[in-house]
Write a structure and sequence with these properties.
heterodimer, A: about 150 residues, mainly alpha, Fumarate Reductase Iron-sulfur Protein, Chain B, domain 2, about 60% helix, B: about 290 residues, alpha/beta, Rossmann fold, 4-stranded parallel sheet
Chain lengths: ~150, ~290
């Protein structure tokens, strides 16, 4: 890397650092606010699709917090995290304004290994995801539109 | 001032997202609608403007995408109008928390609802149809689309919006791609709700749902539209829904698309990555 490239690299590191800092501050806020009452789990419409059996909410949520701390999550917690689709009905159900949707989103990022911690759940990445988007764009837009609207 | 003078519209960036590029008619219609409402929309989207929400597995990549996109949007108009619920909520939840957003953000449904008095006189062509709006529980607290979209549709002459209590989990259907049982339930409940309410068609707010539910249309369970398509039809906009036509055609889509366009993406890629999506049909419980 040349000396001229160093400011760009530093800028990129700084950008990544802000997202990481925000996510970590949210994790700390959630860990300090959540009382593990389990109401978020109890109202969730997706628990029925978890691969692990239903359990009392207060028994599942501690496993989610463990994931946020970078510790292994329980099977029930990981099963729930895997099926979260951001329904958001947990948000008004939470008596402590934890924002359980953010809690689950960060837990999902963490459990997938996205925040640099060990991966605990698997996801199926579609290797053609962006290429398919680009291909449909070529089928649907003119060359001029492609150039002006997507680049 | 000359009588023929038309004041310039408010420039807005129309940030349409990624996957709606399957639906050129929706993008073109949105642009015409925005122009008709007095805006000067400048469209941007695709992978180069990705919000990063699809990269939960890699937050370094997601952060880079978010920063690049916020920077590119900062360099454009003072207002960004978002089409995609994923992009809009990701901007709200993460992107603007880790980047300096220098533009106002508006979700398109919000904008159309706010300008509904100006939109109503443009809806001149009747669209005689009983429709059920496909709803999800998520996103609605950020923008109350479950109330606004039915109201917008009700302004179209001939449309009757019917009601059912079913509201799907999640915030849009594409989230369920890896959960076939949940998606089956959504499909089955949507068809049941449409029949129970006497609807001829299901109308989606989001393109992600429209894409998934198009399989119900192709299989003959119910007609499926995106709400913008019905607004566009009532305004007399000419755009054809090619995606649905291709989906209905399945193997026959190649003939409709034509060799020239298929050559742009490559026949191998078309057969491996496009055709399976067009041929995919929902599984409904018997």
């Amino acid at each position: 890397m040349s000396a001229a490239d160093e400011p760009k690299r530093d800028a990129r590191m700084a950008i990544g650092a802000r997202l990481k800092e925000f996510q970590q501050s949210e994790v700390e806020r959630i860990l300090s606010a959540c009382t593990t009452c389990g109401k978020c789990y109890e109202v969730c419409p997706m628990t029925q699709y978890s691969k692990t059996p239903a359990a009392p909410g207060e028994a599942v949520v501690p496993g989610v917090l463990a994931v946020l701390r970078g510790e292994p999550g329980s099977a029930a917690a990981l099963g729930w995290i895997a099926v979260c689709t951001r329904s958001g009905v947990c948000v008004p159900a939470c008596p402590h304004q934890v924002d359980p949707r953010m809690m689950m989103r960060l837990a999902r990022m963490t459990a997938l290994g996205g925040r640099g911690l060990p991966k605990q759940i698997e996801t199926r990445e579609d290797p053609d995801y962006f290429n398919r988007v680009r291909a449909f764009a070529k089928l649907q837009l003119t060359d001029e539109e492609l150039k002006e609207w997507t680049e | 001032m000359s009588e023929s003078f038309t004041p310039p519209g408010e420039p807005v960036t129309f940030w349409y997202g990624c996957n709606v590029l399957r639906h050129g008619d929706i993008i073109h219609s949105c642009l015409d609608i925005l122009r008709a409402l007095g805006f000067e929309p400048s469209p941007v989207g695709g992978p180069d403007y990705c919000c990063g929400t699809v990269k939960d597995v890699n937050q370094i990549t997601a952060g880079g995408m978010a920063t690049r996109t916020v920077g590119r949007l900062n360099a454009r108009a003072a207002r960004v109008v978002a089409w995609c619920p994923s992009c809009h909520s990701h901007m709200h939840d993460f992107m603007e928390r880790a980047n300096d957003r220098q533009f106002d953000m508006t979700y398109l449904v919000d904008l159309l609802y706010a300008r509904r008095d100006a939109l109503a006189p443009l809806l001149v062509h009747p669209v005689p149809m009983r429709v059920l709006v496909h709803k999800h529980v998520g996103f609605n607290e950020l923008v109350p689309v479950n109330r606004m979209v039915p109201e917008l549709l009700q302004m179209i002459p001939g449309i009757e919006v019917v009601h059912d209590d079913y509201v799907a989990p999640g915030y849009m259907c594409a989230s369920f791609a890896g959960m076939p049982k949940a998606l089956e339930d959504i499909h089955a409940n949507t068809v049941r709700a449409a029949k129970a309410a006497g609807a001829e068609a299901v109308v989606c707010t989001f393109h992600q749902c429209f894409r998934e539910l198009c399989g119900l249309d192709a299989s003959g369970y119910t007609q499926v539209y995106n709400y913008i398509q019905l607004i566009a039809r009532s305004m007399g906009l000419p755009y054809e829904d090619e995606y649905k036509a291709w989906k209905r055609a399945g193997d026959g889509a190649a003939q409709m698309i034509g060799p020239e366009r298929i050559a742009k993406v490559g026949i191998e890629f078309y057969e491996r990555a496009i055709l399976p999506e067009l041929k995919k049909r929902p599984v409904l419980p018997k």
